[in-house]
Amino acid sequence: MNDFLTAHELARRTRTAVAAAVGAARERGLAVTDAVVLHDLFSVVVHLAPSPVVARVPTVLPPGTTLDQQARRQQTELDVVQWLADQGTPVVPPSPLVPRTPAQRDGFSITFWQYVEEGTAKEPDYAANAEATAELHAALRSYPGRLSFLSTADPHLIPESFALLTTRPDLLTPEDLDRAHREWEVLEPLVVSRAAFEHAFPGIDVQPVHGDCPPANILHGRERDLYADFELVTLGPVEWDLATLGPELTAAYDRGARRAGLRTSNAEVLTFVDAVGMLRALTALALAPQLPQLTDYLFPAVDRWRATPFAGGFTPR
Q1: Entry pTM
Q2: Which of 95, 184, 196, 312 is the most exposed place for a label (fewest CB within 10 A)?
Q3: Residue-wise pLDDT tens digits, 115-149
Q4: 154: phi then psi, degrees, rounded to nearest 5
Q5: Which CATH class is domain 7-114?
Q6: H helical segments located in 87-156
Q7: In the chain, which residue ranges form alpha helices assigned H by DSSP?
Q8: Are 311 and 190 in contact (CB under 8 A)?
Q9: What stretch(es) of the chain map to CATH 3.90.1200.10?
């Protein structure tokens, strides 16, 4: 079974996304003469030179995702990040040169961000980034907008992805899928219900969190580091942003939390979010035909999951 996109098809998708970003930018009054692709993985991220604007164009999405669904999530991201910027939090802000709304063109939903020149290339310091994540959590605590509980987990997509993977034994074996289904039966009630989560973990507060591994989403700018990529911002325990990072980075986060006056991580909640995070990694395999290099990252994750206890050792109360 080999329906993975070819290198030619991937390049064509990138060109199409860049053309859509350029067209949408010009419709919004921006001058664009040289579009430079900065990143190309789940999204095509393109600098719309000479304008100081970056467009982000999601290109790898779960089957059936609509433009309206994308736009709602993108609008939430734009609103949260603008609010953080207004509070003085170091973030990559939405571009002030265009309306702060997603643009839809040629089947893509596109957001526009302020261009930030990156600093001298260096290896990311994930421990320092994990410490800094506590400062982001402190800033997010007072966000006044409405967020859904653990929307980032996309709980409706997990069984849908499992269904797709039943036809892909090249990606996940039937034995793996059986275990994954049984684990999800244990974890799902606490993912879809804030009340069930709070009953299982009394005293653990929930708050706005980044939603997508913030230690890996800090941009090293020339002047300072900036929090970035809030596409999956959600309401949840702070542990959600530490899922599957391991004890060293969790300890770094806890140092930052103590300094920021926040609670440190809870071991039971970490066990729960780690288990959910591992299942989300498995379901991401359903996207591999759209992004073949995913298998390089996810097959090792599957091997690690196979070596863990059932549901990561999480036992619901």
Answers
A1: 0.94
A2: 196
A3: 999 887 678 899 999 999 999 999 999 999 999 99
A4: 45, 60
A5: alpha beta
A6: 126-140
A7: 7-27, 67-86, 126-140, 157-165, 174-192, 194-200, 247-260, 267-283, 294-306
A8: no
A9: 126-313
